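User: Let's play a game. I give you a shape written as tokens, and you guess the letters that built it. Ready? Here's round one.
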């Protein structure tokens, strides 16, 4: 065999290997996409009458600010589950800003559809995502474009699939078999749930718990966005399919990923505050009108 033929043979082999590699990668990505699309649209997608999704889709098309309600459901506390975490995520793609506002679960307000004053987190137990959306929209005088409801136990499974997440604690304590340090803590799923659910040792009570919930969500997003999590994609999507409901479909999620990711550059968070009170032996948090107006204005400032 001549040297020219040897060079041609080697070069052709390398090209074939490269093509096979590219096709394999393309096939893997395609398979992941179709698996994700099927899971999102058939298992996670759950439209609600409280939200006209066509408005949100129009906003996405125009790249306008979106309000997304995040509900963390803890079914361990109640047979039907209560919204243990309630947050409004406002995403402004033009100003490249993102804002996460926590609503205390003991906040006393009118439960829309029940015509009673009760804790705001009871709306989910009474009427699911529909009643929660209606109640929070009335409470803050805003329109919710999308909602995401996540079973809190799903966080444990997500963290275990990722391996671990890292959060920074501003206090140290022990909870059962776990010790939590001041500063950086690397945690698996079980330790993450202990971190989130601790109450009695936190002098700020539910305010501290809400902060830890936000930290865990941010930790999952940070770890999930890393290159090392790509091989775990299918497992992560399956876990979300079993634990999450949303009126976002696959097309909406793609637009969020492509057109709104710049908003992560400037991230702000805020915890609504109030005064504790006891009525008929039940503890509530009374949030003043001025605090509600402040939060309403914060959301409006971003165009939400």
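Assistant: Ready! My guess for every position:
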């Amino acid at each position: 065999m001549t040297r020219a033929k040897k060079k041609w043979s080697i070069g052709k082999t390398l090209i074939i290997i490269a093509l096979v590699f590219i096709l394999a990668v393309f096939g893997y990505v395609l398979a992941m996409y179709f698996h994700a699309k099927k899971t999102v649209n058939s298992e996670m997608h759950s439209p609600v009458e409280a939200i006209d999704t066509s408005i949100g889709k129009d906003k996405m098309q125009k790249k306008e600010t979106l309000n997304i309600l995040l509900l963390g459901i803890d079914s361990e506390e109640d047979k039907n589950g209560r919204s243990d975490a309630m947050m409004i995520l406002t995403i402004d793609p033009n100003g490249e800003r993102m804002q996460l506002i926590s609503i205390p679960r003991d906040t006393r307000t009118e439960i829309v559809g029940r015509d009673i004053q009760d804790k705001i987190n009871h709306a989910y137990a009474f009427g699911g995502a529909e009643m929660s959306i209606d109640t929070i929209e009335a409470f803050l005088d805003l329109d919710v474009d999308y909602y995401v409801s996540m079973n809190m136990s799903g966080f444990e499974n997500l963290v275990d699939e990722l391996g671990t997440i890292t959060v920074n604690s501003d206090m140290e304590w022990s909870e059962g078999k776990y010790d939590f340090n001041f500063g950086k803590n690397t945690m698996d799923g079980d330790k993450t749930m202990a971190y989130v659910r601790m109450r009695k040792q936190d002098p700020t009570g539910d305010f501290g718990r809400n902060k830890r919930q936000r930290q865990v969500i941010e930790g999952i997003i940070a770890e999930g966005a890393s290159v090392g999590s790509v091989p775990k994609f299918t497992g992560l999507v399956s876990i979300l399919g079993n634990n999450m409901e949303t009126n976002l479909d696959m097309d909406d999620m793609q637009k969020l990923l492509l057109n709104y990711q710049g908003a992560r550059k400037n991230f702000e968070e805020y915890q609504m505050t109030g005064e504790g009170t006891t009525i008929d032996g039940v503890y509530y948090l009374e949030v003043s009108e001025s605090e509600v107006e402040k939060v309403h204005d914060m959301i409006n400032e971003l165009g939400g």
